[in-house]
Structure formats: C-alpha cells, structure tokens
Amino acid sequence: MNMIARFDQNKDGRLSKAEVxxxxxxxxxxxDQNKDGxxxxxxxxxxxxxFGGKGRPQGGVPVRPQPRTKQ
Length: 71
What we know:
Blueprint: H1 3-7, E1 15-16, H2 25-31, E2 38-39, H3 41-50
Antiparallel strand pairs: 1-2
C-alpha cells in the first residue's frame, strides 16, 4: 500500500498536512513541491527519486539485501 492510500483520510487521492502523522509533518513542506498544500502521487514519486529510489518499493515491503555467497 502506498503512503497516500495509507494516510488519505478523505480519499481524495492526495495528502494534506493534517492527514500525515506528526513525525512526517516536518517533511511535508519539502514533499509539497508545488506548494499547493497537498502532496499528490507525482510529488511522492519525485520525493523517492530525490533519495535515489532507495527504500521501500511500491508494495511497501522493505528491500533486504541477499547474503553474499562464496565462490
């Protein structure tokens, strides 16, 4: 489940500052790139690319590196 679907209380497809958890409120202004007071799916994708696309994939499952095997 993506973050918008998880926290979008009024189901309008975007997040307002009131809908995000308090610990994310500090990042909200950075995520709201067009400064319209909402974070939409495009802004979420752009935020992911700012971090090099690392972290959780769209499905929400953490990526765990596979153990290295000796050759």
